[in-house]
Design brief:
heterodimer; A: 282 residues; mainly alpha; two-stranded antiparallel sheet; 11 helices; 64% helix; B: 294 residues; alpha/beta; seven-stranded mixed β-sheet; 12 helices
């Protein structure tokens, strides 16, 4: 695949599932101003963003925040078209969640019909609710991907190691590498299926049993591999824990300023929403 | 050295060797897996200081099982294994990994940490080294295998050859006295295969480490090993120098192996010219010299 002057590999299982290989490729190779920002800063901003989107229901603030996050994503020369394809899962998730909630909200009816005598009314407030929740989901997804795709994995894992207690840090340190291997294994099996005319989607009804066997095979192979990995670790004296020696780049002065300004803005929004009738997390 | 054959009746045959130089002694060891399959049976084997021993045999002959015993991953059901004079069958094998490093056949099974540096530091850290000392040991080992430039990389994005070099560095950083490598050149391209081959030489020459390789690549074994042990049905069937073993067609046939390429070429040369096989070349250089002389 050719993307923005770079040749990148595309080995995803589906266009709508974020490709871990691609994400890591961008994280390891892209060198923009965002890659040079300390991971601690990006992590702090992630916390503030989560805080903000949990607190506010203001459509303009959410739309503005989404524009900023999307702008940062594009500015980091990350693949925007891929991002839109990856939105499929969060959009489906949000719609399935509020597909029922959005109906019969108080407000002006936009669509109205009845099913078996039960009235179904979609109001302007119902549509607003859908838009707000979609924006919140897309902001979280876009920024999370931006964070992952502009942060080298060794820094990411070192942060996890320093933030989380054992065994969570151990799980993170080990899981990432084997996620790749399991994906590669699944990809290899799917390739073998596709090479003989099978496919993940179009023949799933016809070949349900075969796919069940594939995933069982992946499970069994993963289990066997984990045994071999454990054996290799024991052979080097593994006694229950290991760490990373990688140092996470420290924050520059301007990054403290940015975090401070963003934190102040979040506080202002929170206070404003409180003054306007209390914070109702959505 | 002369060829030492196991007793055809299957009676254990432990060869006498120089006890002063002996690092590992496997004495009539047997291992039966929980499913009942026999891993090794009446295995007799030894490793001396500063030598490269190649365990050669077909798939399933017991090479990998033997290698896992050397590191203490497996303990024999019967018989005895002593490392540096300490018996590992009496429960003293807990720190064996400090003395015998094990490089696995599949590097993907060995490299598990997020970065190359973390992976190579894993062993030294388990030995109790401080972070700085472990880092220094890791950098030294990566430099020694010619992989210093990979230090910050993710193992996932290394080629098969680079992964193998990093796997060896992960063991070398622990400074063991013996390194056992399971199929060290399998799945490698000729360039990386050559690099690993040179590295195995270096382990012995530069670092004074004894090396055990389990392989069915007889070309590799013929070039680098000081001693060949033919393994068949879970025990060492015969042992000798590469020239002795690889120029004995009956032995190789009995073990289910084909002679190395150089041996085959030399044989064909002698047959077509109608001359006696009075030499035992094992390298291209040796063969070329012989052809020039004739």
């Amino acid at each position: 695949m050719h993307d923005g002057g770079y040749i990148v590999s595309a080995t995803s299982l589906s266009d709508h599932i974020p490709d871990l290989n691609l994400i890591t490729y961008y994280a390891e190779t892209r060198r923009t101003c965002f890659s040079r920002v300390s991971p601690w800063t990006k992590f702090s901003l992630l916390v503030l963003i989560i805080f903000l989107i949990t607190l506010t229901k203001d459509l303009f603030i959410l739309a503005g925040l989404y524009s900023i996050v999307l702008g940062a994503y594009a500015g980091a020369r990350l693949p925007v078209r891929k991002l839109f394809a990856w939105y499929a899962l969060p959009v489906i998730f949000v719609l399935s969640l509020i597909g029922i909630m959005a109906w019969n909200e108080p407000g002006n009816a936009v669509i109205s019909f009845s099913i078996g005598g039960i009235p179904c009314i979609l109001t302007d407030n119902g549509i607003l609710l859908i838009i707000i929740l979609l924006l919140k989901a897309l902001i979280a997804v876009t920024y999370s991907l931006f964070f992952l795709m502009t942060t080298r994995y060794r820094h990411f894992s070192a942060m996890i190691y320093r933030i989380f207690p054992t065994p969570i840090d151990q799980i993170f340190l080990m899981a990432y590498r084997f996620l790749f291997l399991t994906l590669a294994m699944t990809g290899a099996i799917l390739k073998a299926v596709r090479s003989r005319g099978g496919g993940l989607i179009h023949s799933i009804h016809m070949q349900g049993q075969m796919f069940a066997e594939i995933f069982a095979l992946v499970f069994i192979r993963s289990f066997e591999r984990s045994e071999r990995v454990h054996k290799a670790m024991i052979a080097r004296g593994y006694s229950g824990s290991f760490g990373t020696a990688v140092e996470v780049p420290a924050l520059h002065l301007y990054e403290y300023v940015i975090i401070g300004i963003c934190a102040a803005l979040v506080i202002v929004v929170a206070l404003r929403d409180t003054a306007m009738g209390g914070i109702v997390p959505l | 050295m002369t060829i030492i054959r196991a007793d055809p009746a299957g009676i254990p045959h432990c060869t006498h060797n120089d006890k002063e130089r002996e690092l590992i002694h496997v004495d009539c060891a047997s291992h039966i897996y929980p499913d009942g399959s026999v891993g090794i049976h009446n295995m007799c084997f030894y490793v001396q200081k500063n030598e490269i021993v190649a365990l050669c045999g077909p798939n399933g002959s017991g090479k990998s099982t033997l290698i896992e015993h050397l590191n203490g991953l497996l303990t024999p059901s019967e018989g005895n294994i002593a490392v540096n004079g300490r018996s590992i069958t009496t429960g003293e094998h807990s720190n064996l990994w400090r003395e015998v490093g094990l490089v696995f056949q599949r590097s993907d099974d060995q490299l598990f940490a997020p970065t190359v540096l973390d992976d190579v530091m894993f062993g030294p850290r388990n030995m109790g080294m401080s972070v700085d000392a472990a880092k220094a040991a890791a950098m030294e080992a990566l430099g020694a295998v010619g992989a210093a430039d990979l230090v910050g990389k993710l193992p996932n994005y290394l080629s098969g050859g680079q992964k193998r070099l990093v796997s060896i560095a992960g063991i070398l950083a622990m400074k063991p006295r013996i390194i056992a490598l399971d199929e060290p050149t399998s799945d490698l391209d000729p360039v990386h295969s050559g690099m690993v081959e040179n590295l195995i030489f270096d382990l012995k020459q530069r670092f004074g480490i004894s090396v055990v390789i389990a392989t069915h690549d007889l070309d590799l074994a013929s070039r680098i090993a000081d001693r060949i042990c033919l393994v068949r049905q879970g025990s060492v069937f015969a042992e000798g120098t590469p020239a002795e073993i690889f120029y004995d067609p009956v032995l190789l046939r009995e073990t289910g192996l084909k002679p190395p390429q150089i041996v085959q070429v030399y044989r064909a040369y002698c047959q077509t010219r109608g001359i006696q096989e009075d030499h035992h070349p094992l390298t291209i250089e040796d063969l070329m010299e012989l052809i020039d002389r004739k």
